[in-house]
Structure formats: C-alpha cells, structure tokens
C-alpha cells in the first residue's frame, strides 16, 4: 500500500507532552525536530528525550522522522548515532545543498546498519532543500541515494538565501517550488511542500495547500495539528473522483479480459495516461482507507 | 572543599519533570520527590528514577525531582541528561 505523506507534523523534541500527543492528531508523518526548535544548550537533552520516546511510545500508523542537525554541525552525527539504535528509520536532513550532503548521511547510515545488524537499505532519508544552491542542485540531490524517499522544500531559509521575504501570494517561491517538485517526480520520489506559518489565515492556507497539490507535491509540512484536516481534505481524492477512477480501472480490466486494446468509459475512449492517473487516485484512496474494507481517513 | 558535580535537566512545564543531581560517591543516595501525582504514582516514579540511576551507575549523592505529570520516558530522559551533565561527559 502506498505510504501517504500528505502531512508531516513538526513536533519540537523538547516537549514530552507534545511528543506523546502527536499521533492522536493522525498526521501521516511526525517529524521530531532536533534542529531549529532546539536551542544549542539543550541539544543533548532533546536527543535523550527523543531516544527514550522512540523506545516507549506507540506512534500507530504515523511514519516517524527526526529532523536531525546538519552533519556539518557538532550535533548531526551524534543525533544519528543515538537515534538508529533507538529504532528510528527515517531521517530528515536539513539544509541539503548538494548530492554530497546526502551521500555523507548515506555512508553514516550504511555504517550504522552494519554496526547494529540492520537490513541494508532499511534506513531512509528525506532531503530538505532550503537554499538557492539546494534548489539549483535539486535534480542531483533527488537521485543521490536509493535511501531517498523524498525531498522537501523549505521557504523560510530559501527566502533568506534569496535576500527576499515570503509574500502572501508566493511569487518568490514559484520557480523553486516547481523545480523541487519536478526533480522529485523525475526521480520517482515524494515532494513535500514548505510550512505555512500564518496560523490564523485559513483562507491563505487553503489556497497555498491547493497550489502545492496542483504543482504535484505529495504533501505539506505542518507546524500545528489544526492544519492537518485542511491538508488531508485537499490531498485526498473526493468520492466522485474515486468512483470515476474505479470505473476507468474496471473498464481497463474488462478490455483486457476481452482481448481488446481499447478502453471505453461513458462512450469515450480512455488512453494510457488517464488509466495511470486513475490508478494513482485509487492508490491514494487506499492509503487513506477510503476503499471498501477500510475506514475513513 | 571541592564542590559536588552538579547537573540539571527538564522543565516545570506540564508533562515534564525538572531533575537536579549532585553526585557524591561518599554519601548515600538520597532522592527527594515532589509531584502533582505523588499520592497516586509516587512509588512508580521512584522506581523509574532509581532504576535509571542504577543503570547509570549512580550510587551516591542528592537527586531532586519536581514532577509535573511526566510519563516514564520523560523521567528517564531527564535523569540521564542531568547525570550526564553532572559528569561533564556527554557533549551537547
């Protein structure tokens, strides 16, 4: 079944209450943050808290990540070395600017898989692209390692690197967003859009999430549980889309059974890209438990 | 007189715990526990603290715990961090 990554909920790894409550809100993914949310003098404390949390808490169906500190800081490698034996499998690498950044983490994970006798390739990477240089290198980053399950776009640091500010309409991000999602799709991995920080602006949030979906992103990083419902609504196929997709797939099976190469739905011929899109809709619906036999997302 | 190694970790926020340790191998281990749920879970809290200290090889000194309803994982993590800091061992 396709792993949905519609929402990646950031949770600071120094708040025990937020950490054990996070799965209650049912995001697709939880990202425990050891980087920007943690002050320099609390890095050790947050790391210890996350290690003990990983050993103790059942996160249910949520895919769990840690946003580690960059490997060029004194903290990044320590984060990884402590989190792997605690059972963490997914690492979000911030400030990824080149394929070498990914390869450095890849090599560390390979060594740790060997040290802890884990299956080779089990540990995964999400590369976070947050600078002008990272955006330019997105295609090379997205294909740097078979461990990559996706790349994400971070607008806050990106606008800083571009000497500009985020606007409500997001023109300053359009090319970068498009480039990141194009690189991810060409590499066959997920693309995760940046956070939206204006928590009170529901209309603006709705508009931005819709744009991210339209551009081809798989989901969005979120900073508050209240944002999850909107993202899931927009990124989950509607009932009529699911029914239509099911009819296309049924027609394809019927055509195959009849030895016919022509698929017809409602009197219209359907070609291969439409069938593939229909299959994607059904994969998303299945991942969200919206097909018969599953519950509602 | 040499000052006993001192370490502190945690907060007084809800669901957290503030742990302070003064390590002194020449003194018996003394644990002071203050908790909003001491009546209900005091013995369980003490068990978590003493087990964690034992695993860390702490045999003597004074440990002060101010608990604000923390779960076991948070208590363990805060005790580990406070002891590590007192030992000056684990770099950030």
UniProtKB/TrEMBL annotation, chain A:
<feature type="binding site">
    <location>
        <position position="130"/>
    </location>
    <ligand>
        <name>Mg(2+)</name>
    </ligand>
</feature>
<keyword id="KW-0479">Metal-binding</keyword>
<keyword id="KW-0460">Magnesium</keyword>
<feature type="binding site">
    <location>
        <position position="67"/>
    </location>
    <ligand>
        <name>substrate</name>
    </ligand>
</feature>
<dbReference type="InterPro" id="IPR040442">
    <property type="entry name" value="Pyrv_kinase-like_dom_sf"/>
</dbReference>
<dbReference type="InterPro" id="IPR015813">
    <property type="entry name" value="Pyrv/PenolPyrv_kinase-like_dom"/>
</dbReference>
<feature type="binding site">
    <location>
        <position position="130"/>
    </location>
    <ligand>
        <name>substrate</name>
    </ligand>
</feature>
<feature type="domain" description="HpcH/HpaI aldolase/citrate lyase">
    <location>
        <begin position="6"/>
        <end position="225"/>
    </location>
</feature>
<dbReference type="GO" id="GO:0016829">
    <property type="term" value="F:lyase activity"/>
</dbReference>
<keyword id="KW-0456">Lyase</keyword>
<protein>
    <submittedName>
        <fullName>Citrate lyase subunit beta / citryl-CoA lyase</fullName>
    </submittedName>
</protein>
<dbReference type="Pfam" id="PF03328">
    <property type="entry name" value="HpcH_HpaI"/>
</dbReference>
<dbReference type="InterPro" id="IPR011206">
    <property type="entry name" value="Citrate_lyase_beta/mcl1/mcl2"/>
</dbReference>
<dbReference type="GO" id="GO:0000287">
    <property type="term" value="F:magnesium ion binding"/>
</dbReference>
<dbReference type="GO" id="GO:0006107">
    <property type="term" value="P:oxaloacetate metabolic process"/>
</dbReference>
<dbReference type="InterPro" id="IPR005000">
    <property type="entry name" value="Aldolase/citrate-lyase_domain"/>
</dbReference>
<feature type="binding site">
    <location>
        <position position="157"/>
    </location>
    <ligand>
        <name>Mg(2+)</name>
    </ligand>
</feature>
Automatic annotation (TrEMBL), chain B:
<dbReference type="Pfam" id="PF06857">
    <property type="entry name" value="ACP"/>
</dbReference>
<feature type="modified residue" description="O-(phosphoribosyl dephospho-coenzyme A)serine">
    <location>
        <position position="14"/>
    </location>
</feature>
<dbReference type="InterPro" id="IPR023439">
    <property type="entry name" value="Mal_deCO2ase/Cit_lyase_ACP"/>
</dbReference>
<dbReference type="GO" id="GO:0005737">
    <property type="term" value="C:cytoplasm"/>
</dbReference>
<dbReference type="GO" id="GO:0016829">
    <property type="term" value="F:lyase activity"/>
</dbReference>
<keyword id="KW-0963">Cytoplasm</keyword>
<keyword id="KW-0456">Lyase</keyword>
<protein>
    <submittedName>
        <fullName>Citrate lyase subunit gamma (Acyl carrier protein)</fullName>
    </submittedName>
</protein>
<keyword id="KW-0597">Phosphoprotein</keyword>
<dbReference type="InterPro" id="IPR006495">
    <property type="entry name" value="CitD"/>
</dbReference>
